[in-house]
Specification:
Layout: H1 2-21, H2 23-50, H3 59-71, H4 73-84, H5 87-92, H6 95-100, H7 106-111, H8 120-137, H9 143-168, H10 181-188, H11 200-209, H12 214-221, H13 229-256
Helix pairs in contact: 2-3, 2-8, 3-8, 3-12, 4-9, 9-10, 9-12, 9-13
């Protein structure tokens, strides 16, 4: 385990050095990330002008959820997208062959090769939106709610990893899926909205088959209200299911994988 932790931080360090080689590009993408945060806020404020609530959320609650949504951009776009977008290339160009020869778990290797730091503004805008939301609500979460939130945030990150990796691992079975890593990130945008606004059928899909609506809503709601025991348990169960499923898809895919040079 110590070896994997050391490698993980080594990859982060190498990614930072790579970012600093192209500082103008780094600064440009930071500005773009800040712009996306501003557009998210603007869209929410325009929406709230037409309705005082969105589903069952008030304006303050919407800001808290939006803040957490922006914070979670860091693992989604700064880590997973950066690494997972390379997996189709590894497979189609035969680079996976070299990875499989390493004395390190291949799933870990393809999941941690690259990180991006231009999404740093999302951390600060996300915290800002959250604090402003609590100011509107006229409250601040208790220590128990905060501890619960951090744990649920970790579980949600694991669920995101499981869903995202299960998607990109399908490249091992079907050739020419070079853009499959965009599928999950497109669905991620739906996670900022309450499930109440969707039709019953779509809501069921977004909480079971593709439980994207759980990864933001449940942790964010834990900051301003108690999480229902069923939702708390269900989030853990569905996370375990997707982590196991993603591992199975990857390992079974490797058995059918043939080198790009063969």
């Amino acid at each position: 385990m110590r070896k994997y932790i050391s490698l993980f931080f080594k990859f982060i360090s190498l990614s930072w050095m790579r970012e600093m080689e192209y500082r103008s590009n780094f600064i440009t993408w930071m500005i773009i990330d800040f712009t996306w945060s501003a557009m998210d806020l603007l869209f929410m404020l325009v929406l709230i002008n037409f309705t005082q609530v969105l589903g069952s959320w008030s304006k303050g609650q919407m800001l808290v959820v939006l803040g957490f949504f922006r914070i979670m951009v860091i693992p989604v776009w700064g880590w997973l997208f950066q690494s997972f977008s390379l997996i189709p290339k590894y497979i189609s160009e035969g680079m996976l062959d070299m990875i499989l020869t390493k004395p390190i778990d291949s799933q870990f290797m393809v999941s941690s090769r690259q990180f991006g730091f231009s999404i740093i503004p999302s951390l600060f805008t996300g915290i800002g939106f959250t604090l402003y939301g609590f100011k509107i609500l006229g409250m601040f979460p208790s220590p128990i709610f905060i501890i619960q939130f951090f744990w649920l945030a970790v579980v949600s990150t694991a669920l995101i990893y499981g869903m995202y990796f299960a998607t990109v691992a399908c490249t091992l079975y079907v050739e020419r899926l070079n853009n499959i890593h965009h599928v999950f990130t497109s669905l991620y945008d739906a996670s900022r909205y309450p499930g109440d606004i969707f039709s019953p059928m779509l809501k069921r899909i977004l909480t079971t088959l593709i439980p994207i609506s759980l990864v933001i809503v449940i942790p964010a709601q834990s900051l301003f209200s108690s999480v229902k025991p069923f939702d708390f348990i269900y989030l853990h169960i569905i996370t375990a299911v997707f982590l196991i499923l993603s591992r199975r898809i990857w390992t079974n895919g490797l058995r059918h994988y043939s080198s790009a040079s063969s």
